[in-house]
Structure formats: C-alpha cells, structure tokens
Automatic annotation (TrEMBL):
<protein>
    <recommendedName>
        <fullName>DSBA-like thioredoxin domain-containing protein</fullName>
    </recommendedName>
</protein>
<dbReference type="InterPro" id="IPR001853">
    <property type="entry name" value="DSBA-like_thioredoxin_dom"/>
</dbReference>
<dbReference type="GO" id="GO:0016491">
    <property type="term" value="F:oxidoreductase activity"/>
</dbReference>
<dbReference type="Pfam" id="PF01323">
    <property type="entry name" value="DSBA"/>
</dbReference>
<dbReference type="InterPro" id="IPR011767">
    <property type="entry name" value="GLR_AS"/>
</dbReference>
<dbReference type="InterPro" id="IPR036249">
    <property type="entry name" value="Thioredoxin-like_sf"/>
</dbReference>
<feature type="domain" description="DSBA-like thioredoxin">
    <location>
        <begin position="15"/>
        <end position="210"/>
    </location>
</feature>
Length: 228
C-alpha cells in the first residue's frame, strides 16, 4: 500500500498597517478573514500569519473629539460627511457588520502600545484578539477606546495580561518612542501614507480598502506560482 501523500505546509506571512480610528481598517480585517478562511478551506496546507503594525491617522489628537464632528470637520460639509458614512456602512453591510458613529476619537498611541505588548507576550493569535476587540468596541459598541482604563480591561480580557503590566506599558514613554519610530519607518522606508495597508510576503502591497477579489487573486497567484 502506498503511503499517503502529505502536502508540505505553506506559510504566507502578512503585515497589516492600521489605525483604530479607521473604520476601513476594521472592514478590511473582517473581509480578509473571510477570504483567508475560504482559501485555507480549499488549500489546508496553507497557513496565514498576520501581524498588525501601527500607523497614526490622527497623530494630532491630544484630546477626545466626537466622531461625527470629526468627519464633518474633515470633509467640510454635512452632505459629504453623510455620503462618506453611508459608503462606509455600505461596505460594512457586505461583511455583515454595523458601524456606529457614537462616541469619541482620541489619541491612539496607547491602543497601539497594548497591541504591541500582546504581540511580544503572546504572539500573533493573541494580538489578533486584542485588535478585534479594539475595533469592535469602538465601531460596534461606541466605546472610547483611547481611555486607559478601558485599554486595561481589554488587555486583561482579550489577552490575559496583568493589569499592572498594561498600565506600566501605557505609561512607558520609551514604548511610545518605539511606536513613533516604527510609524516613521513605515512612511519613509515602505512608502505607506494611508491605511489600511496590507503587505504580503514582504513584497506585495495592497493599499486602501479593496474588494475581496483583489485578495483572492493575489493569494491564488502566490499559491499557483509558488511565490514563497
């Protein structure tokens, strides 16, 4: 009897640059998860390894601002703001999501500190849980996720992190400087000037919100041509 053919494991690393004030980043996360799940169901030897990287859409924030007011101020007219929010909700509907504009935006550096801490302590799977919780709590529940007490809660519940460790990380100025350098390098070295920005295999770049077919075609190309 012939031995069964065992297919070798294929690892596809991916980096996603995102900021938590960006609803397009949240929608892209959900869309990508569906595409990856569909792809791995056809090709079980494939494994995606997703690492989340920081970016600042609103680096100028020093305090909180109402989300609806921010969109209105950024676009300059109520009609344009309404049109943008309608486009975002339309894309979210395709993923079975509902986006709320209740609550406030604020400085996101500490949220990125928490994500980086989860990655260092527990790896990409736990980091992904923290990322999902931050996006979901902001854009579905309307939470002010820049609030340190809320970040401590997320760190404990989503990553099993010790509360004191999280507070030390959030207060660590050196941790903030490391994030700032990483964001600067993303702009200067990798040419990232907007999010979401997905980099696959450290060579294929997909910028902005894209339809699922873009990722489906890319993954198929990588797999069929063995660009690994």
């Amino acid at each position: 009897m012939m031995a069964p053919i065992v297919k070798s494991r294929v690892l596809i690393p991916m980096e996603i640059y995102a900021d938590f004030v960006c609803p397009w980043c949240f929608i892209t996360k959900r869309a990508l998860e569906k595409v990856m799940a569909k792809f791995t169901s056809k090709h079980p030897e494939v494994e995606f390894e997703v690492t989340w990287r920081p970016y600042y859409v609103t680096a100028m924030f020093t305090g909180k601002v109402n989300r609806r007011d921010f969109v209105l101020k950024a676009l300059g007219s109520q009609s344009e703001a309404d049109a943008l929010m309608e486009r975002i909700q339309g894309a979210a509907d395709e993923q079975g999501m509902s986006i709320t504009w209740n609550g406030n935006f604020g400085p996101m550096q500490n949220a990125h500190k928490l994500v980086a801490l989860a990655l260092r302590r527990h790896g990409v799977a736990v980091q992904a849980r923290v990322v999902e919780r931050l996006f979901h709590d902001q854009f579905v529940l309307g939470k002010d996720i820049f609030d340190d007490d809320w970040l401590v809660t997320v760190g404990r519940e989503a990553a099993g992190l010790d509360e004191d460790d999280v507070r030390l990380e959030l207060a660590d100025q050196d941790a903030g400087k490391r994030l700032d350098r990483e964001v600067d390098q993303a702009r200067e070295i990798k040419g990232i000037d907007a999010v979401p920005h997905v980099i696959v295999l450290d060579r294929f770049k997909v910028g902005g919100y894209q339809e699922k077919e873009v990722y489906e075609d890319l993954f198929n190309k990588i797999f069929m041509e063995r660009i690994l």
